[in-house]
Each structure stands twice: as structure tokens, then as C-alpha cells.
Amino acid sequence: xxxxxxxxxxxxxxxxxxxxxxxxxxxxxxxxxxxxxxxxxxxxxxxxxxxxxxxxxxxxxxxxxxxxxxxxxxxxxxxxxxxxxxxxxxxxxxxxxxxxxxxxxxxxxxxxxxxxxxxxxxxxxxxxxxxxxxxxxxxxxxxxxxxxxxxxxxxxxxxxxxxxxxxxxxxxxxxxxxxxxxxxxxxxxxxxxxxxxxxxxxxxxxxxxxxxxxxxxxxxxxxxxxxxxxxxxxxxxxxxxxxxxxxxxxxxxxxxxxxxxxxxxxxxxxxxxxxxxxxxxxxxxxxxxxxxxxxxxxxxxxxxxxxxxxxxxxxxxxxxxxxxxxxxxxxxxxxxx
Length: 337
Prior knowledge:
The chain is α+β, with helices and mostly antiparallel strands.
């Protein structure tokens, strides 16, 4: 089409010379320009809409170069190479739905690969829910998604690698005789988690209810910044909705009462679990360490002051109250912003 446009211009210019009249020349030249522009536009449109056939070299490119939005799609071969064929020595952790492996991608990036345990309906829903949600949310305290793999009976998610693991792994750890998580770091973790939840609850067009906030789902980067992870159980709440009904899912001992009894999920579900996380950060004790024989009523007995009155001094009460007050005020401020 570009050649046609040039030919039209040349023919009309020749006609102008032959006629030898300025007025006619002006009119003809104007028509020439218009026709040439139209020809160029047609050529550009034709090029934009035309389907480019892949060359043999393009056909040989790996599927890992395919992107869905900003999320990369990997082949199973890529993932196996990155994890050394899912070597047990590369396992970083495991949960109810999958095992997480340390991986080194083709470009040298260190990543974490979550492999769903079994190809079942529940796992399939969790996989696509996580891909959909994480690919949409962007916040410094929420885990981003590098890519995924959906091939044969394998469903895998590729995340950035978090140098300091999870809050759960560091909660009772010691480094050189000192707690891995000192008070400033614990406060930083509490604030970071609150910011992430405030974003999900208040700053997304559709509210996102996490439903599985716990220490093992809060990752820590190299600066001990809290990163909320594991979005497989999320529920979405539209504008004007106060709660949504769903089948009861989550971690035993961390399910909010209204959700456990009525199946109602809302931002309160996450706030309840967040409160348990604060208890863990303050006491340094995992809430699921509670034994039924010692605490027949579960968490209610465990947090009841009567069980701690002989151990907790007045200054501890002041420290705890101040800590809670600061964190919840910060959470409320995040929600307002």
C-alpha cells in the first residue's frame, strides 16, 4: 500500500506539469496529498491488523516467554530445571494445599515455587483464585506473583523468594543468643500486616477477604518487612455488601466465631485472625500450642487473664496495652487513607 501511495503522488505531479496551470496544479496537488495520506493510513491499518505468521525460529521459542498480563507462564520443564526436579533439599515449607520449593530461574533470579499437592477440584479452584487475585493487587505488603505453570496434572505458582522465611519460622528462633524478632521488628511486622489488610479491605474496588491470616502466611523479606501471602482462600465482597456466605475453610483455631457458626465472611474474619497474630507476636508463643486438657474452651481459656495472672506483672500489662493500642490505631489510619 505504501508503494501505491507513492505511485499516486508521482502520477498526479506529472499531470500538474503537463497542464501548466497554477490553479489546476494546486487543486490536483491537494488531491494527490489527500490520496497519498489515505494510502498511508490504509497501509498502517493493514499492517496493524494483519496476522504475522511465526517464523520457524519463533515456533521454537519456549512457552515460558508467554505472558498473561504481567504474569509469566512457565513450562513444566522450566520449573523442574529451576527446582532441580523438585529436589527435597530445596523445600522451603509446606501447607494444606502445597509444598514450596526454592528455585533458580533461567535468568538467575532466586524464586519460590509453590506446587499444589494433588490435582483435585479444591486445589484447582485455589490455584486459579490465587493467580487471579495476586495478579491484580499491587502493594508492598502483599506478595506479588512472578508466574505460573498449568501443564498436565501440575499446578505451580512462582513467587519472589523471601530471604527471612515466615513469621512462624522466626517467632521462637534465636540468633547468637538473642531473639530473631526483637520488639522493633515485631512492631514492624504487625504494622506491615495491618497495611496489607487495610489495602485489601478498603482500597480495592472489590473488598478482598483473605480468610487465612496466620504467622506461616506472613513472609519476611531481607528487611523484615511483612508480606501477606497465600491468597487461595480469598473471598470477594461487592460494594454495599456487609458479608458473604461460603463453606467454612481455613486453619483450625483461627476461624472467627461468626464464620464458624454461620459461614459469614467479612473483613472482621481477617481482623479476628490478625488479633491472634498480635498475641503471637507479643507473647512469642504459637497460639496452636494450646492443649485441650489444659484449656478445654480453646483460645478463650488461653487468653483469659486468670491463666496468666501469676506470671504477668503490671508493667507487662502496660506494654501489651500500649502495643495493641498503637497497632490498632495504625490499622484504622491505614483504612482511612
